[in-house]
Structure formats: structure tokens, C-alpha cells
Write a structure and sequence with these properties.
Its main location: membrane. This is J domain-containing protein. The longest helix is centred in the middle third of the chain and has 31 residues. With 491 residues, this protein is mainly α. The chain is built from 21 helices and 4 strands. The protein folds into 5 domains: 36 residues; 60 residues, Helix Hairpins (Orthogonal Bundle), CATH 1.10.287; 30 residues; 151 residues, Sec63 N-terminal domain-like fold (Orthogonal Bundle); 131 residues, no CATH class. A 4-stranded antiparallel beta sheet has the order 3-2-1-4.
Length: 491
Amino acid sequence: MNVDPVKEEKMDCVDLQTPMARKVRTSHRRDEYFMAQKVSSIETTHHEYDPYAILGLDAGADVAEVKKKYRDLSKKHHPDRGGDPIEFDKIAKAYQALTDDEARENWEKYGNPDGPTAKTFGIALPKWLVSKEYGLWVLAFYGLIFMIVLPVGVGFWWYNSIKYNHDKVLLDTTQLFFYFLHKTPKMEINRMLMVLTGALEVWKEHNKEIVERETDDFTLPTLMKHYPNLGENKKEKPLSFPYALKARILAYAYLGRHDLENDDLDVDQRYIISRVLRLVEEMISCTQQLTFYSQAKVPFETMKNVFKLMPMFTQALWPKYSPLLQLPHIGEQNLGFIKRNKVHTCAQLARLDDVKRRQVLNSLSDYQYRDVLVVLSSMPQLQIETSFEVLGEEDKHEVTAKCLVTLKVKLTRRSLLDKDNIPDDNRKDFDDNSDIEKISGDENEGDDKKEQEDKKPKRKAWEKQPKKAKGKEATLREVSVLSEPVLGQLR
């Protein structure tokens, strides 16, 4: 359909004359007027200092014109002739800025003939905040904040913080550990678990995160039948309280790897286990303090059992169980065949070549077998090298009577499973777990025995034969620390 351009233009003009178009144009004009009025009403707070404008001269006027203009203005505005003192000060300051070299330099550099001035900053506050009408309410609000809310908040924080030590363990729990270590210095594993699960962190009166459920009265007695050594009949407080008994049952279930059929108990068990390692560290600290800083000595067996708690909860295994159970996909049904091949520890399994190791774990799929290799490669193997030297002597390795001997210990951490024993098709699944981390007591200790012997000063032909060492020369030994509890603790 063809439309005449002239008619189309007339139609547009008609459309612009409609009431809606007129209303839109009126609205735009009103907004433009309002914006222009706002801009014009803005107060200018900063004025650039211009001495030429103050004297009424053009910018760049010479000194002669400045002096002439200053004389004319002085006759008119000088206070002795009835002029305005403030206006005359402005004129004198502008004259100085244009004639004095120092004042002119300050004006050109800082915008002021007097030099740099201090800058002031302000903040915009609503008018009602500083008005007399609301002054009393504002004062009351400040008093409420600074005299009631702030002191109460600080007091509440202080009251809660003083209940914990620097390791974030309740001070009452620390006193509880000291009390039972004094009462029964010789502790077995079961006794330590009773004391550990009696920590006040798992009691609702001291920890608001603990949830006490009515269903515990029905679910916990069922679990108690599996653990005859809970000591629920003992009357020791607080070890006989319900919270301690519940924590003890959940800890036994965790170490025994028993599945909890109740979801609420599973949540409670996760909460307790997530905090038990911190409590174990606190118990270790208590035994060390009693041993080294008090007269009440803790027996060695007790300290040995305390250190067993850390790998127990890390591996979720009782000490009597096989350490192979900490490997993935290996259960009680696999242990019989593995032990018949004379493999009892993770270290023995890692020493096998890949063909023999695959035969021992033939009940696992290829994917499960790779998981076992990954875990073995993440386990540490420690090698200890020792050396000694006599400082200040020409022969550092000759020990004589009353000499000072320095013992150097070098720890080398390696992966339990060597990468060379991993087949090529499985190496891609491994990260750099086999990288060696060395911890040396002396940063400069790195020379081998041959280099040390080369550096020994040779005995001259006329010198006497040195006396034989009275002490026995220490030998360098490599000790592989592969015991499973230590591995669990290092992990």
C-alpha cells in the first residue's frame, strides 16, 4: 500500500497535537525547569583566590599598574579615611601576592599567598538530628547506646571468653582432666574414654549447641547392649551423668564402626567427633604439665595410652583392630586372605611389588584397588639419620673425655608407597604425594660422610698419633617409623 509522504507528515503533526502528546511535553518542560532551578540554587562553597580580580585588574598586569591601582584603592578603603578594614585587608593581601616574591610563589603553588592551609571536611547530617526539637531524643539515643547497649555487649563477650583457654577448651574441662589424672594416675584406654567423654563441651548446661532429645531414652539403650564396658553403673560425677553416657556410647560406636540407624544420633556423633581431637590435645597437655611441672608424676603407661587416642579417633579404630582396616574397601571379610599372605600392616602391603599386591587384593575391583594405592601413597614414612660432632676441635668426630658433643638429627618424610611400585596405568590418578619433605635440625647439614672425611686435616709426619676416643663413635642409622598409631597421628 503506497502512502503519500505529505499526508504521512500531516498525520505526524496531528498526532503531536493530541492531549497525550501535550501532556508529555508539559511534563518534560516542568522537569527541565525544576532541574535548572536546583542547579541555580546550589551554593558555591569554594572560590579560587584571584588577586587581580580583587584589585580590579586584568590578569597579567605589570607591577606598575598593580602599584597604581593599590594607591587608588588605599585612598578609598583605608580605615584612617573611613574605609572598611576587612575590604582593605583583602586589597593589601592581593597587593602583597602580586609584588612580594614569596607571597606570589605561595599563591601560584598553593592558591593562597599565606602558603598551604589546613583542609576541613564535614559530613552531611539531617536537619532534625541537630535541631532543638529532637535534641533530647538524640541525646537519649546516644545514652542508650554508650551507657547500656555497649557495656552489656562487652560484658557478655567478656563473660563468655573467660570460660575458655587459649586452645578454646572450657577451663572447667581442663580442671576436670586434672582432677581425674590426680585421682587415677594410671589409666587404661577405657578409663581415658570415660574422662574424655565427660568433658563439659558436650553438656547442654555449658554448651548451648547441644541438643537433648526425648528419643534418646529409646535409642541409646539399644546401642548400650553392644558395649559392655561403658561403666554406666559407676557413680562418679560427672562421668555418670546422662550427657557423658550418651557421648561415651557415640564414641564407642564410632570406634567400632557401627552404623547408627537414627539420623539424630548420627548428627550428635558428628558433632562430638569434630571436637574430640581438641579435647585429646588438652588431655595430652595436662599429662605433660603434671609430669614436668608438678610433684604428681603421671606413669609412662598413662602417657602412652593418651597418645594412642589421637590415631584411634583419626583412623576410627580400636588399637586391637588390624591397621589394614583404615584402608578403603577393606573389611573383616578381606583380612583372613590378606593375613595368610603374611601382610599385617600397611607398610608390609606397600613394600610388595604391584603384581603380588594385586594378588593379595584380588577381591577388590580395579577402581577400588586404585583407591587403596592413593591412600597408601598419602601415608608418611619417616627416616631418621643421626650424626654427631665435637665443636671447636680439629677432629670433629673424635670424642674425648669432658668434651661437648652436638647431636644432629635429620628427619626425612617419604611416601609409604614408592611411585616406582605403581603401574603406569595408575600413576595418572596420583598427585605429588611422593614428594620428599625434609626436616633438618641443622640447615647446613647436607654433606655426606665422604665429603666430611675429605675435609679432615691430615696429620703431619712429625706429629704424634692422636689419642683414641674414650667414647664410642656414633653410627649413622636409618630407622623407618612405620608403626600404624604414629602414622595415624602424623596424618
